[in-house]
Amino acid sequence: MSNCEHALPQGEIILLKLGEVVLKGLNRRSFEDKLLSNVRRRLKNCGSFQVYLRQSTIYVEPQGTSCDMEAAWTACRQIFGVAALARAVPCEKSVEAIVATAKVYLKDAFAAARSFKVESRRADKTFRMNSIQISQAVGGELAEAFPAVAVDVHHPDLTVFVEIREKYAYVHTASVPGAGGLPIGMGGRAVSLLSGGIDSPVSSWMMARRGVELEMVHFVSPPYTSQQAQDKVLELARLLTPWCGRLLVHIVPFTEIQEEIRRKCPEEYFTLIMRRSMMRIAEAVARKAGAKALITGESLGQVASQTMMALGVTEDVVSLPVLRPLIGMDKVEIIRLAREIGTFDTSILPYEDCCTVFTPRHPATRPDLEAVRAAEAALDVDALVARALEGEQWIRVKY
Ligand code: ATP
Ligand code: MG
Fold first, then answer.
1. Residues 164 and 193 grouped into a single domain
2. Are residues 194 and 236 in contact, defined by beta-carbon separation less than 8 angstroms?
3. Are residues 274 and 163 in the same domain?
4. pLDDT value at residue 346
5. Whose CA is nearest to atom 26 of ligand 1?
6. Is residue 98 pLDDT above 50, yes or no?
7. Do 203 and 130 reside in the same domain of the chain?
8. Between the N and C ends of the chain, which has fewer C-beta atoms within 10 Å?
9. Is the domain of 116 the same as that of 216?
10. 2 in a domain, yes or no?
11. What's the 72 CA to ligand 2 centre distance in angstroms?
């Protein structure tokens, strides 16, 4: 504990309420530790903040005047593990101080409201008034201070929240939902197959939300795919970094494999054999990265290569778990999420993906695993995978 915590912070702070309250014991502890260190890291660019945990709440307190509170607020809204957040002003633990603080802090809110109420919580049970008494006392004084705003305990325009905590009292307005989920790093590490489409940024985001630290792999097929297509994928990764933290993107050349498949395999299996090759390479990348799962943006029935049988053929070549968070989602739901997390507009930029090169006219939708294996035997798969991995490049996308 540093000295700063003992001094009354001046001005506005941010309160983060922890999510996943069902977590118990050791999990709870590692949740809190991970979340605290993630919050500290993410706020580094916003100035100097004191960040600490008390009673299932993380306090984010600016130190000095050089802190960018708006940037900090935006950053905190994108941190997984935070269930809800509010901006608040701390003050001494007395009705007079609380009223004085609310009058200044909520002046504009009172000017815009026709009615209000006070809602109090007393985390410090030794405080001499209970929450109802606090609300009545503070509400009475505020009603006098703002005679144009009526008290309405049922449907007020404005709710003034008062919390009496260990050291100070806090005045804040309504809290907003946080990003939810689990802190990044708590769910282990996985390699996500990132294309330039709508789906895979969303599937990556969904697993990050479960606390999974990501590394991305992206396959490129020059000259069939362009530099712009690759830049678009890097931009998608960049858009994900406020949620996921900085990302390592593995760029793997895929042209030779695709040309070999076209030359030597039956057309109806082009996509499936290509996807099997992607999975093999992604698994090799994952093993090197110490990752314990692969993530794809597949959704059941969306395209021929995403029928149940096709998915079975695809994952036949890997032993790591393949996580497909979009498997049961409709495209409209996926698009809604893509818009919410901010990747949609980039995803729909019209650049080709290597999946759209050499697409068969009549892809097999009920593929037979043995038949695909037999068709694939025409390739020297191991050598092709090894050469693709030799050409691998890494790009670190910063937050
Ligand atoms: P998306 O919108 O994510 O591109 P999609 O519906 O277009 O998905 P496919 O093109 O069949 O589906 O790809 C299925 C999944 O395979 C993608 O969600 C992604 O995880 C992975 N994938 C496809 N192309 C690539 C690529 N070029 N690099 C890395 N992964 C890819
Ligand atoms: Mg795609």
1. no
2. yes
3. no
4. 97
5. 195
6. yes
7. no
8. N
9. no
10. no
11. 34
